[in-house]
Amino acid sequence: MNWKALVVAVTLVVSAVGTPVAAAATTNAASGQSSAQAQSGTYVSFETADSAVVDYTVNGKTVVDRLSVQSTSEAKSQTGGELGLSGDAGFSGAGLSLASSFDASTSATIQSESGAELVAHDNDRGIVVVKANGESHVARFNSSDGSEAEQASEKRAVITSDDGATATVIVVGDGNVTVSDGGNVTAMAEENSRVVYRQYEGERNDSEKQQERMIANGTAVAEVYVQAAGDAASDADADDSDDSDSTPTATDSPTEDSSEEAKERSADVVRYSEDTTVEVTENAAGTFNATVERSQSEGKVVIMSVSEAAFENAEDAEVYVDGEAAAEASSYSEVQSATNDGETSKYLVRSSSSAQASTDVVVGINHFSAREVSMQSGGDGGGAISGGQPGFGAGVAVIALVGAALLARRQA
Question: Which residues pair with 367 in a beta bridge?
């Protein structure tokens, strides 16, 4: 027998078999590396790694270092039904993939293999909205080292980090939140519900706590963050990539202000209600216009967080609904009363605990379906009807011009 020939033959066979195995291992490793995608916006940065969003950072602070989502049925099978209590072990989120990024929008959309959708918003509060999309889901928020979590109500939990930053997890619709022995927060959302994450630079003030309650009970259906590049280190483009599939959206409109700051002004729109849409039609230094539309007639609240760098004298803002001046309220209860088919819409101005200087303008719209909402700077001598055109869109501009003509005739 020719032993040398046999050895050579065996060597060739082993080499031939081993090569594709090694190649497959290399391919799998490369695939595993590419599954982790980093996102960095003006305010928010994070990574998607296989089955979780990790190191979620807002304004340089991390309160939650891991966010994972799984269908309720699968999560219960993994943990033996002990969701959110002492049985944190065993929970494994579904696979995630990045559908859209901060490169083209003020929001990044992440799809879960379980059918849920996560939308991270690049705004000062780093809001994340988890949409259940027709099947009951569980969202798990793992607190960062040194953070502590406590339950504020059946639908809200608060996480506080050792550097003073805080975050709130809110269930909108049917569901609840629980805090585990390890300090992690589990939110269970039914088929048509959503889970909301909001982060703050420090302790939440009373106004922000009230806003959280309104989000949880469905009174507040959307937020708009009016921002400028001057608020943070980088700019943010507010073109919306999610409006077509009814996810929280971000929209930006060009302005006539020629300053560099105005060119980078944006409006990030966060939607908490499936049947609510917000379209921003003007976003200038002293004028902000948007169309708010709902399929149901009952009144609701829209919250506008306004940066001083993006909007002049927001604390003295004047608010118009369909070209008519809304009444300024003195409390949240007045704003909520206006939504119960009140005689007029009302708004409330409150300071924000934002990392940047900003003001919250909370608007209670008395009824729907489509309403044109305008906010004008109060620092221009009260000339809200002339020049800035209160209201959004061409239709409201005509109403405003007619109103101005009538006013001039009466004064003549």
Answer: 298
Which of 186, 163, 167, 188 lies closest to 44, judged by CA? 167
Asked whether 342 and 299 are in contact (CB, 8 A), the reply is: yes
Strand segments, DSSP code E, in 309-345 are: 318-321, 324-325, 327-328
The H or E element spanning position 30 is helix 3-34
pTM of the model: 0.78
In tens, the pLDDT along 113-129 reads 999 999 999 999 999 99
The tens digit of pLDDT for each residue in 52-111 reads 999 999 999 999 999 999 999 998 888 776 666 555 567 889 999 999 999 988 999 999
Structural contact between residues 336 and 214, judged by C-beta atoms closer than 8 angstroms: yes
Report how far Cα 40 is from the mean position of its chain's Cα atoms.
15
d(CA 310, CA 226): 6
Give the model's pLDDT for residue 229: 67
Query: Rounded to an integer, what distance in angstroms lies between the CA atom of residue 278 and that of residue 262?
Result: 21
Q: Which CATH architecture has domain 36-204?
A: Distorted Sandwich (2.70)
| Among 257, 201, 207, 248, residue whose Cα is nearest residue 229 | 257
